[in-house]
Write a structure and sequence with these properties.
With 174 residues, the chain is of the alpha+beta class. 39% of the residues lie in helices and 25% in strands.
């Protein structure tokens, strides 16, 4: 029963933060900040059943995007992330989508309708989400070639993808 209550509280918290960010008419994101701290390494199962480890992408610029199928802004953002991934992949860039739902079937169904070309990982126990202090959906973390988190963005509104592109361009050149 205690674990069930924790799951309800976690889901409710994600919903409230997502709603608070995106129900306003201004569409202002919760937070966006630059940083330079080591990104916690992790291993998660991918949508194809393979374990993927963040450290395997050392030497690349990585955009981690924490998302959920119930999150409207996540759904809006996904095609832009796919385009960004496809545009810069040959230059040493990759998007890793991290789905935070306990029921991965919902994410898989969403991806059947709107497929993406980048890897989708399942954090169904929210272990990685907690390590990255994810408190809003979506949350985007951009990691440099040396494995340092350089940018954190919570929430999404149209136009945020331009910020991501600018940061990715800068980090690819470093």
């Amino acid at each position: 029963m205690n674990n069930f209550i924790k799951k309800i509280i976690t889901t409710f918290t994600y919903f409230i933060f997502s709603f608070a960010v995106f129900s306003s008419t201004s569409g202002i994101a919760l937070a966006a900040k630059e940083m330079n701290v080591p990104a916690p390494d992790f291993t998660l199962k991918s949508q194809h059943g393979k374990n993927l480890k963040l450290s395997e992408y050392a030497g690349n610029v990585v955009l981690l995007n924490f998302w959920a199928s119930w999150c409207g802004p996540c759904r809006l953002e996904m095609p832009y992330l796919n385009a960004l991934n496809n545009k810069y992949q040959a230059l040493g860039f990759i998007v890793l989508g991290v789905n935070v739902e306990e029921n991965t079937d919902k994410a898989r169904n969403y991806l059947n309708d709107i497929p993406v070309d980048f890897p989708i990982l399942f954090d169904d126990k929210n272990i990685v989400s907690k390590r990255y202090d994810v408190v809003a959906m979506p949350t985007t973390v951009i990691i440099d070639r040396n494995g340092n988190m350089r940018y954190l963005h919570q929430g999404y509104k149209p136009g945020d993808e331009k910020k991501y592109k600018k940061i990715v361009n800068k980090l690819i050149r470093e």
